[in-house]
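Design a sequence for this backbone.
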């Protein structure tokens, strides 16, 4: 109910602001909705949304897989931590725009370059989170697994992974929020489709209704995925933790 009220308040403020600013700079909600419907009817909206979502999924899975493995290794092995820490600091502080531009220069304006650039920007956050989660593992549980002669896989599956689940959820949520932003920049700079590409075209044409139509549709998809997938996964992964009174 509160979410609906906040949404209604947002629409009211937007509509009032559009009356004062003017439709050229800030079109009203009905004007933007009209563009959304036209783009959806032509199929262009779903085409570009699908392209963006495909890049998000591929880059996210790649970054989470590599980041989790590297983070776990750095948390377990001191030598790996010492060798990887300088590179981790570099990637954490390297601007996303630099990574994207270099990827396009070195690999060309290809799909692989775009996905790799997005994944590289997300990778260090996953590594840091999983490294800290691995460092926080309860060593006494490792000893218990050894006493009961559990295989490495069973110990990892039943002892280590449940402890890492909250950190995996945190890395997924923070990383996904980053990927949503980076993918639009990558599309704006070097892809012939996607929401970022359409936003770039709308900017060049000074087509504010079209720009807002794609931006708000993208934001709505992000909100739905966050509500239906990310938040339930995070709640499930931390369900064993005691709740505050």
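Sequence:
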């Amino acid at each position: 109910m509160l979410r609906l009220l906040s949404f209604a308040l947002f629409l009211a403020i937007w509509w009032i602001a559009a009356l004062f600013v003017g439709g050229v700079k800030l079109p009203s909600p009905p004007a933007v909705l009209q563009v959304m419907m036209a783009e959806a009817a032509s199929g262009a909206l779903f085409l570009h949304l699908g392209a963006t979502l495909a890049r998000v999924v591929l880059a996210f899975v790649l970054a989470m897989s590599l980041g989790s493995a590297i983070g776990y290794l750095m948390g377990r092995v001191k030598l790996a931590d010492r060798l990887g820490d300088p590179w981790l600091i570099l990637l954490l502080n390297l601007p996303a725009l630099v990574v994207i531009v270099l990827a396009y220069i070195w690999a060309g304006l290809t799909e692989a370059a775009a996905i790799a650039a997005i994944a590289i920007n997300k990778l260090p956050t996953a590594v840091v989170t999983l490294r800290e989660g691995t460092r926080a593992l309860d060593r006494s549980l490792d000893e218990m697994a050894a006493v009961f002669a559990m295989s490495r896989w069973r110990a990892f599956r039943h002892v280590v992974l449940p402890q890492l689940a909250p950190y995996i959820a945190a890395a997924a949520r923070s990383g996904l929020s980053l990927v949503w932003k980076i993918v639009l920049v990558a599309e704006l700079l070097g892809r012939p489709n996607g929401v970022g590409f359409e936003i770039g075209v709308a900017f060049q044409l000074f087509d504010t209704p079209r720009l807002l139509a794609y931006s708000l549709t993208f934001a709505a998809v992000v909100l739905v995925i966050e509500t239906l997938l990310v938040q339930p996964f995070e709640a499930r992964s931390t369900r064993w933790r005691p709740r505050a009174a």
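The two ends are 24 Å apart (CA to CA).
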